[in-house]
What does this fold into?
Amino acid sequence: MKQAILITAYKNIRHLEEIISCFGSDFYFYIHIDKKSNLSPDEKQELEKIRNIAFVSRNFKTNWGGLNHLNSILLLLKEAVKKKDIEYIHLISGHDFPIKNCQNFKEIMLANKGKEFLEFFEMPAKVWENGGMDRILYYNLYDVIDAKGTNGRFIRKFINLQKKYNIKRKIKDDFPKLYGGSTWWTLSFDCCQYVLGYIDKNPSFLKRFKHTFCAEEIFFQTIVLNSPFKENVVNDNLRLILWETRNGNCPANLDESDLNVITASEKLFARRFEYPVSAALVKTLKERLTKQ
It folds into this structure.
């Protein structure tokens, strides 16, 4: 079974190489690296020389929360569906790492052939502040402003001003029912083709996500859960994520103390890996995966 892995990244190029080295020739890689990263032309060429890398792009400058993360994902997806022998496509970030070996990937996806793995919930949703509706009902300026530092406070103040003066963005009556969930997913080739076909037929749908917050956490869920693939969706993205503040981040930057949890997990990938705190864990996982 041929599979594709899409990766959006902005740093730690060596970690990308570690991810790729865990997979054999039945896996194709499509990588977008933030245009703002300090990746050198030589490093990009090194990546492109790796046998199972099919595509490397630096098309977009990506602000956290902005639309260009979704644009970079769609770019990679359009490239991936050009290979008609691919059966499943996985979306991960440059902070992820596989926790199953190649054979496990093949066995798990063969056993679940026809299923779509996508975390979802109806909007408005209790798990998101204000049900998540602020993301789409107000102008979020993450596309044009880097939200780091004081800029994030400015964006929030701008949203509060819109609320104060009752300025809301229209959602058309024919807009599909909104669903949200995790950015990361594992979808069949046919489902991915459907998503791309949908936005080709409905260009205004993608356009409406400009100036929303984290559009990629709504976009795929809304299309797939309003599609013929809805009945095949498993509400699980197959990612192990520890939602706690540890090692300087939430979700936690994983370390060797997480090895038992990872080993016991039935997920395909874990996140989040950061250096140097995750270096020993990556080494141990790689040794285990390549020996199996």
Q: What stands out?
A: DSSP finds eleven helices and twelve strands in the chain.
